[in-house]
Amino acid sequence: MTAALIRAGTGTMSERNLAYLDEHFERYISSGTLAGTITVVLHRDQITHWSVQGLRDRERDKPLEDDTIFRIYSMTKPIVSVALMQLYERGLFQLDDPVHKYIPSWEKLRVYQSGTYPDFQTVPCERPMTVRDLLSHQSGLTYGFMMQSNVDAAYRQLKIGGGGATLQEMVDALAELPLEFSPGTAWGYSHGTDIVGYLVEVLSGQRLDAYLQEHIFGPLGMSDTGFWVKPDQADRLATNYAASASGRGLDVVDDAATSTYLKDPIYLSGGGGLVSTAGDYLRFSRMLLGNGNLDGARIIGRKTLQLMTMNHVTGGKSVAAAAIRTGPMWREPSHQGSGFGLGFAVVLNPANGQLPGSPGAFSWSGAAGT
Question: What angle in degrees, to the nearest 10, is found between the helix axes of 76-89 and 192-204?
Answer without folding.
Answer: 40
